Amino acid sequence: DAGVTQSPTHLIKTRGQHVTLRCSPISGHKSVSWYQQVLGQGPQFIFQYYEKEERGRGNFPDRFSARQFPNYSSELNVNALLLGDSALYLCASSSAYNEQFFGPGTRLTVL
Amino acid sequence: AQSVTQLGSHVSVSEGALVLLRCNYSSSVPPYLFWYVQYPNQGLQLLLKYTTGATLVKGINGFEAEFKKSETSFHLTKPSAHMSDAAEYFCAVSDNTDKLIFGTGTRLQVFP
User: Fold this and answer.
1) Do A102 and B32 touch (CB under 8 A)?
2) Which of A1, A19, A15 lies closest to A78, judged by CA?
């Protein structure tokens, strides 16, 4: 079975631009969570979606938004990019409570 | 609020030596605790988790961790390190939701 997939793998943007990151969960998983991992730090929780509804939101500005589609895939959108948004963005899916499986991540570089 | 502290950002051991990675947590509710491993340029892989029940948890690749409520600790151990264990290790805590709170990570180096 395929694991969690994320696209693109790498992305380079300039300040002020907008970016969309995509995630496909493991088949049968209805929950998707997004994390930001800045170099040298642990992942920070951004959002969790379950059955297309937002279930949790971390301490991130409104420039960050997300949504989940009927097939349970998800998009993370970031507007007005800042240099500090450069990070590895991780998507995780789960079915059972607290058993999260992570994708390989999207490396975003903001110049 | 929940938090995790990982003592030691870098740990170096010789191949065959004991691995001990330290994790202390803070939680106002009974915690769920996790250890994840991250290899270079990859996502996170779950090593083991504690939810309820037995406090000694066995995971993949020979790792295990013991939940000690009195010490608010969840240290990760492996009796004999392999070169392939070199990676970044993250301890995480959750309050029964899917939101994981991670520590800052410990980079494990294994020398031949």
Assistant:
1) no
2) A19
Those residues whose C-beta lies under 8 Å from the C-beta of residue A76, and which sit 6 or more positions away, are A20, A21, A22, A23, A34, A46, A47, A64, A65, A66, A89, A91
pLDDT digits 0-9 by tens, A47-98:
999 989 999 999 999 999 999 999 999 999 999 999 999 999 999 999 866 6
State how far the Cα of B17 lies from the Cα of B13, in Å rounded to an integer.
6
Burial class (CB within 10 angstroms; exposed 0-12, middle 13-18, buried 19+) of A25: buried
Q: What does the pLDDT read at residue B30?
A: 83
The rounded Cα A59 to chain-centroid distance in angstroms is 14
Q: What distance in Å separates residue A42's CA from the closest CA in chain B?
A: 4
Q: Please state whether beta strands B10-14 and A31-37 pair in parallel, antiparallel, or not at all (unpaired).
A: unpaired
Count the residues in chain A.
111
Subunit contact B104:A45, Cβ cutoff 8 A: no
A55 contacts: CB under 8 Å, gap ≥ 6: A31, A48, A49, B97, B98
Q: Which of B23, B90, B95, B98 to mutate to test the interface with A (most CBs of A within 10 A)?
A: B98
